[in-house]
Amino acid sequence: MNTPTSVAHGAPAARARRAMPPPPFPAVVVQLVQQMQDPNANAGDVGRLIELDPSLTASLLRLVNSPFFGMRRQIGGVSDAVMVLGMGAVRRMVMSLAVAAPMRKADVDPAFVSSRWRHTVSCAALARRLIVDDPAVSELAFTAGLLHDIGQVHLLQLHGNDYVRLHADAGYADVRALEAERFGQAHDTLGAELLEAWGLPQPIADAARLHHAAPPLAELNLVQQAVWLANQLAGAPGAAARIASLVPDTLAPAERAVQEASAEIETLTHLLNG
Domains (ranges, CATH) in the chain? Predict the structure, then answer.
C-alpha cells in the first residue's frame, strides 16, 4: 500500500530566517495531531489531552449536547463523549472546532468565511473517505484535509477584507498567482511552511504544499492523493464523474466518497455556527 511517506520540499534555511507566527489554535491541537502518530494511544489518552484545554472541552460538550446531535442523555465529560461518539469522531470534532475558531473571529464578510469553512470541512471529510482499509492513514488524511488551506486562514487573518477582495478578483481562476503578487506568497507554500514550523507531521505539511500539484497523481503518496482529489471535489461534488479518470485505484471511487461524506460535511459545517 502507498503510505504517507514524507517528501522533502521547500527551503529550510529561508524559513529559518523568517519568524513564523504561532498556531492560531490551542497548543493542545498540535499535541492531538502528534498523538495520532502513536499507535498505542487510546481513548483515555485522547480524553485527557482534550481536557487540558477547558475552552475546547466546553465547546465540545456544548456541541455534543446541542439539539443538532439529539442525544438521549446529557454528556457530562470528554470521556463520556468519547464513549458515546468514539475516539475518532471526538478528535475530529475538537480539531475542527479549533480550526474554525480563527475563521469565526475574522472580521470579514460572513458569507466568505462560511464558504471557505464549508470547503475546508468538505475536503477533510472527503479525504478521509477516499482512503480505504487503513483507519490510521484515513484519520491522517482528514487532518491534512482540514489543514490544507491553513495558508489561506493566515492570509485572511493578516489582510482581512483585502484577502476577500482578492478572491472576488480571481473569480474562478487559481488564486495563487494573485496571492503571490499582492501578499508575497501563495497559500499552498505558505501553509506548508507554517505547518512545518508548528511541528506538525511532515505528511500533513506536504499535503498542503501539493494540493494544487499538476496531475497525474502517480508521484503523490496516498494522503497527498486524497487531499488533492478532495480539494477538487469539495467545491463541486458533481464533478466526481468528470474527474473519475484521475482517481488512482489506490483510492475509493470519488462518487462513493462524496455520497458517504455528505452527512459528516453537514455536521462539520454546523461547527462554525455552533
Answer: 24-105 (no CATH), 107-274 (1.10.3210.10)
